[in-house]
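If you are new to this repository, start here. Below is one unmodified record pulled from the training split, so you can see the exact layout before writing a loader.
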Amino acid sequence: MSDSPTATPVVAQKAPYAVDVEAGKTYYWCACGRSAKQPFCDGSHKGTGLAPLAHTAAQAEKLWFCGCKATGKAPFCDGRHKTL
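And here is the target side for that same chain:
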């Protein structure tokens, strides 16, 4: 991997991450694909030109966060990983 800035996310996995979220809690979805704490940000995006996306859960429920980073409805899975 190059040290130069890039705005291209990497595929963390070709499937969504199922997460039981807590009502009122804010989650920071990793948009770059480089975080070791997928699907959430650990700061690995620094220097990539990408930034995490905040999502505050309205209620306690299971949500499917995108793992391939190619979704059209970030931060959630839209099935696009099936075409990669």
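Two things worth knowing about this chain: Residues 11-84 form one domain. The beta strands are 17-21, 26-29, 53-56, 61-65.
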